[in-house]
From TrEMBL, chain A:
Protein name: Signal peptidase complex subunit 3
Alphabetically ordered keywords of this record: Endoplasmic reticulum, Membrane, Signal-anchor, Transmembrane, Transmembrane helix
Subcellular location: Endoplasmic reticulum membrane
A single GO BP: protein targeting to ER
Species for this entry: Xenopus tropicalis (Western clawed frog)
Transmembrane feature ranges: 12-32
InterPro entries reported for this sequence: SPC3 (IPR007653)
Gene: spcs3
From TrEMBL, chain B:
Subunit structure, as described in the record: Component of the signal peptidase complex paralog C (SPC-C) composed of a catalytic subunit SEC11C and three accessory subunits SPCS1, SPCS2 and SPCS3. Within the complex, interacts with SPCS2 and SPCS3. The complex induces a local thinning of the ER membrane which is used to measure the length of the signal peptide (SP) h-region of protein substrates. This ensures the selectivity of the complex towards h-regions shorter than 18-20 amino acids.
UniProt catalytic activity: Cleavage of hydrophobic, N-terminal signal or leader sequences from secreted and periplasmic proteins
Record-given protein name: Signal peptidase complex catalytic subunit SEC11
Hydrolase is among the record's keywords: yes
GO biological process: signal peptide processing
Entry GO terms, CC: signal peptidase complex
């Protein structure tokens, strides 16, 4: 049974099992790792308007504008099983109509090899901060957090929220700017 | 031919054995798949990424493992697989907006990492939000490249039938040593 075909077959089967074992090792060595790092978020300006939600629902809704700074060193998160980090700044708050609202304001992809140190100044949000109604006006507790989704070479896809969030109050009237 | 020589040398008992063996392989594959559906709560626990809209996280041909536990809330940042009315192929995209009512009713908006705009253009006309019922699963595990096999087979159906025929023939005709 020493034909070319049978040798090729066993070579293929063996390399396949070696690759499977390596992939599993890659996954199991990093699956239980903590990936939390401290994050420093600062909001310098908040502005509020009430306009028709042109991104879809077409109803008059509260639209917030936030100017923010972020400082974080994401280097400790990276290891041999991290292909990419998807980091995103989200606002979380409660309104009268919804017990939980989450809106992603800004995001960024950091690939392995990119600069893992975040030092952002006077950033504007990337997406419109539309509420589902008029729940931003006078809202005292809008919490901003920076989270990341770890995309591995092979393995689990954890969502991690950085330690260090801030809560900001929104203005009581439209078209007013609040500085912090 | 040597292949059929094996078959001719078999007696009836061995022939039954071969057929049963083949049936065993097919039914265990089916059992594993259905078992996964029960354990993960998702109607399709393993999906192949078919588009580049989540690059560079997921490329065409990568494999995703999904769960869909009802008590697990849907939150911003998660990658969900959802179906849109009028489209056969499920879409793998990230949740960027969530609004949840007190009674647990949830509506959310998705976007592909590699797309410039949110998915409202992909939804049914006039649909602004997805709901829990649209979700097929949430991405929990990732395995690169393995799904390439499926993509090649779907792109070249003849190749698929050839592979299936050869594998079937081997199992049925090859005598157990």
């Amino acid at each position: 049974m020493n034909t070319v075909l049978s040798r090729a077959n066993s070579l293929f089967a063996f390399s396949l099992s070696v690759m499977a074992a390596l992939t599993f090792g890659c996954f199991i060595t990093t699956a239980f790792k903590e990936r939390i790092v401290p994050v420093n978020i600062h909001v310098s300006r908040v502005m509020l308007e009430n306009v028709e939600d042109f991104t879809g629902p077409r109803e008059r809704s509260d639209l917030g504008f936030i100017t923010f700074d972020i400082n974080a060193d994401l280097q400790p998160i990276f290891d041999w099983n991290v292909k990419q980090l998807f980091i995103y700044l989200s606002a979380e708050y409660a309104t009268r109509s919804n017990t939980l609202n989450q809106v992603v304001l800004w995001d960024k992809i950091i690939l392995r090899g990119d600069n893992p140190k975040l030092s952002l100044k006077e950033m504007k949000s990337k997406y419109f901060f539309f509420d589902d109604g008029n729940g931003l006006k006078g809202n005292r507790n809008i919490t901003l957090t920076l989270s990341w989704n770890v995309v591995p070479n092979a393995g689990i896809l954890p969502l991690v929220t950085g330690s260090g969030h801030i809560s900001i109050p929104f203005p009581d009237t439209y078209k007013t700017t609040m500085s912090y | 031919m040597d292949l059929f020589g094996d078959l001719r040398r078999m007696n009836k008992r061995q022939l039954y054995y071969q057929v049963l063996n083949f049936a065993m392989i097919v039914s265990s594959a089916l059992m594993i798949w259905k078992g996964l559906i029960v354990v993960t709560g998702s109607e399709s626990p393993i999906v192949v990424v078919l588009s580049g809209s989540m690059e560079p996280a997921f490329h065409r041909g990568d494999l995703l493992f999904l769960t869909n536990f009802q008590e697990d809330p849907i939150r911003a940042g998660e990658i969900v697989v959802f179906k849109v009315e009028g489209r056969d192929i499920p879409i793998v995209h990230r949740v960027i907006k969530v609004h949840e009512k007190e009674n647990g009713d949830i509506k959310f908006l998705t976007k592909g990492d590699n797309n410039e705009v949110d998915d409202r253009g992909l939804y049914k006309e006039g649909q602004n939000w997805l709901e829990k019922k649209d979700v097929v699963g949430r991405a929990r595990g990732f395995l690169p490249y393995v799904g390439m096999v499926t993509i090649v087979m779907n792109d070249y159906p003849k190749f698929k039938y050839a592979v299936l025929a050869i594998m079937g023939a081997f199992v049925l005709l090859k005598r157990e040593s």
